[in-house]
Design brief:
The chain is an alpha/beta fold and 296 residues long. Strands 3-2-1-4-5-6-9 form a seven-stranded parallel beta sheet, sandwiched between helices. The longest helix has 24 residues. It starts with a strand and ends with a helix.
């Protein structure tokens, strides 16, 4: 398979590219950074100049582009950057596919598990309607940006992602830092959901969905275990052999982080219903097993 990964220089994209190359697949990476390795091309994240012709050559396109939500503070200009960095790349990729003489067989669009809202009754699955808050509506527009590819006859898969556990990047190293410094504890009251997935399963599920021609539509990429924030932080402390005692109240997080604090103090329970039904088998189903592998 020959695959084009937009936003492929991040830690998820890099892991995916490495995994696919290891198995003999050809990978082209579009990045807004200065290319550092062969197979990387620089783009501005909003136009098709200099790379659109590659669409004629690839079997799959993976869109991972998006400015990380862990950037603080969430000012109006920062929120605009969150939107633009997700919507504009999607529109550009869809436009390139529309104009291509040979279209890819599959298009994988990343999104977020926060589509279902920060709270709510019952456990959400892929059929749960989107909420109205900022994070949920961000995912609505994010996914809609590449809707055109379905109308063009391309199989489109949407992955709604949670916190990806890895020592290499993302939000998790920052979340684990208090425990490393012997100040581990829950955030807020600790009852909020803490959806997670190990990087190996994030990459494995993406590859499974790309290669399985019977998959289409949205899939929650989260581990099947229902984990609260308190359970999550307690397990981090246990695996690191650190105390679990320094609980941070929600009002203090709001005071320091502002609106961004919802990433730590709010969360709705969800399940990977369609992914399990499709036959994906998780490498790391339990949090303790995932953390032991990361911290070994």
């Amino acid at each position: 398979m020959k695959v084009l990964i937009a936003g492929g220089s991040g830690f998820i994209g890099s892991a995916l590219a490495q995994s696919m190359r290891k198995d003999g697949h050809q990978v082209i990476v579009l990045t807004r950074q200065t290319p550092k390795t062969p197979g990387q091309l620089r783009w501005d994240g909003k136009t098709t100049g200099g790379w659109a012709h590659l669409i004629n050559e690839v079997d799959a396109v993976v869109n991972l582009a998006g400015f990380g939500l862990d950037h603080w503070p969430w000012t109006a200009s920062q929120k605009k950057r969150f939107f633009d960095s997700r919507i504009l790349p999607g529109l550009a990729l869809a436009s390139a596919i529309k104009d291509a003489s040979r279209r890819p067989r599959v298009f994988l669009q990343t999104s977020g598990i926060n589509r279902y809202g920060l709270r709510g009754a019952g456990i959400a699955d892929e059929s749960t309607p989107p909420a109205e808050d900022f994070l949920a509506q961000l995912t609505v527009h994010w996914e809609a940006a590449t809707q055109l590819v379905e109308e063009l006859g391309v199989r489109r898969v949407i992955t709604r992602n949670a916190v990806v556990l890895s020592s290499r990047g993302g939000l998790f190293p920052l979340m684990a830092l208090p425990a490393r410094l012997f100040f581990g504890g829950r955030f807020g009251n600790g009852t909020q959901a803490m959806p997670w997935i190990h990087l190996a399963d994030q990459v494995g599920a993406i590859r499974f969905l790309l290669e399985n021609e019977n998959t289409h539509g949205a899939y929650n990429l989260i581990a099947p275990a229902q984990t609260s924030n308190a359970d999550f932080m307690k397990t981090v402390a246990k695996v690191l052999r650190r105390p679990y005692w320094f609980h941070v109240p929600a009002f203090l997080l709001r005071l320091v982080l502002g609106e961004m604090s919802v990433l730590l103090t709010e969360g709705r329970y969800s399940q990977p219903k369609r992914l399990l039904e499709a036959g994906y088998r998780f490498q790391f189903e339990t949090l303790e097993g995932a953390l032991q592998e990361i911290f070994k």
